[in-house]
Amino acid sequence: MQGAAKRQLNGQMLFKVFGIAFFVYLFLGFMVLPCINTLSSIFTAKNAVGETDPLAVIRFFLAGNMVKYIWNSLKLAIGLVVTVNVVGISIVLLTEYFDIKGAKILRAGYMTTMIYSGVALVTGYLFLYDSNGIITTALVNAFPGFNPNWFSGFNAVMFTMTFACTSNHALFLRNAIRNIDYNTVEAARNLGAKPFKVLLKVVFPTLLPTLFSLTVMTFITGLCAMSAPTLLGFDSINPEIVRLAGSSVADEAFPQARAALLSIILALFTIILLTVLSAYERKGHYLSVSKTKAKLVKQKITSPVGNVLAHIYAYVLFLLYMTPVVMIVVFSFQTHSAIRMKELDFGNWTWLNFFGRADYSYLSSRGKETIRQGAISGVFSNDTTMQGIELSFILSALGAALACVIVVIACNYIFKHKKSGAVLEYSLLFPWLLPTILICYSYRTFFNSSDVWYVFNNNLYYMNRVRLLIVIAYTVTKLPFSLRMIKASFYAIDEELEDAARNLGANQLKTFLRVKLPIILPSVLAVFALNFNALFTEYDISASFASSYGKTYAMIIQSMCADEGLYGYNINASGRRCASTVFIMIVSGIILYLVYGIGSRDLGERLEIKEKRRKRIAKIKQRFTKKHPKSESVDTAA
Hints:
Elements: H1 2-43, H2 56-63, H3 66-97, H4 103-110, H5 118-129, H6 134-142, H7 153-164, H8 167-178, H9 182-190, H10 195-223, H11 227-232, H12 237-245, H13 255-282, H14 304-331, H15 336-341, E1 357-363, E2 369-377, H16 383-414, H17 418-429, H18 436-446, H19 465-490, H20 495-503, H21 508-536, H22 540-544, H23 553-558, H24 573-598, H25 603-627, H26 630-637
Antiparallel strand pairs: 1-2
Helix pairs in contact: 1-13, 1-18, 3-4, 3-7, 3-8, 3-10, 5-14, 5-24, 8-10, 9-10, 10-13, 12-13, 12-18, 13-18, 14-24, 16-17, 16-19, 16-21, 19-21, 20-21, 21-24
């Protein structure tokens, strides 16, 4: 028995040593060394003579127009802090705090940005507000002097991202406002405070921690924006980094080093903001509540004028959120000619933007009828689009799954070993300190060589290997989020269960698989679903690793209309882009329903729903038997 126990102990020790060594290898090779390589490239750039000049890039940077990109990103981030907070707080108050008619419908409209985001959302807004968009065309027809190119640059990015970035408010601020103790609100009202004074003096102070976190998240989002500035033509940091990364010395001076310097500046901003957020959270925030917490009751707006204005404001916001969704869904079933003219043809609906192929006939310059076979194709019949969907599906699933597996193993270690576990935890949170673009740029430059012994001298940016690099980037960028979510589920594991399994002779692996994993599995699956949802249409990483071998679905959507109708090919690209957005909405909606709908229900709620379903079925059966009594019909026939 002692020999068996000793062999088991030695096996566990070897497994532990191997695991630590493997983690150190991954951490150094895929987090530390690429970033150090990026930092060192700034100071190892060579001047025109071929000599290494450590300050050449910095002098060029300050003398040129590179500062403009930093200022533009800061301007966007500061502007979004104001607009997103105004709109985000508004939609939560209108649906959760004030008594507004149709709040459930309004809430559903405000949360539509959760089912499509990134490049899909931007292309949706372009479909409406571009120079030939539906709404812009209507405005030009109504007002001939209206500028058709109004939706571009800073204003377009600000408008689009204001509504795109309120999803966090709809989730986190909504939960915070629902947890307010109504007794404190009622006490203030009884003391004669008016509704808006209660809101400012009682409600908002309890929401400050959440609002501060959301403000920092919004600022970082604006600072690191990628898809909206790229598609809407705004010169900010991230698009410029991607452009410089694909440039060469023959095109311009120090392109790679300038990209590295911009990445480092972006990382410094992110680190400072996250440090400030952490320091603010460590101060602690306390709220005095009554012993018996009361559920928040929606407040009526006593002023008739204020009530009318609040309803008008609520439904104007609802239209702004819903118009892109409705128009994209409707036009996804329209013919290519209707989409091109931006006119709805209710008598001619089609599934061609989704399924099937059709030929396209047109008159050439010589007046001869020409037919292009298969020039009209649906999302699921177009080879290029399907390749993008398949590639994104596989890479996103792999990245989301690897992040969950790594974090589950890490959390199991963290809860057993306090000191070394803390080091492991901070190592997994390391990617949170760096913007995604810096990680991707570091991978692109560090692994684009055959001299990296860390990966056995393989060029990971070469041909199909770039897909592996994308999966690694997906995994690394999702580690911090996965750790924060899955670690919380480990607190629900009772230590007595593990002790009982050990007393019954189960080893650590068997205890983990049979006892711990079933408890945390719902949370792990929820994190996997959210990771997959975010990565499936992810644009930043895809643009950083732009390659014919790594063209993901987001890149396909972005370039879908570039050659629409050219020489009679790719006729219905706009319709296919609408259909792609609808497809993304369906996939995202199903995943969010599984996570926040079915997945968020506790056992009591599930049993209650099951009982209601049983009663409903029993009523239907009872009505059916009353209308069609079997026994009477049999007796009558006899």
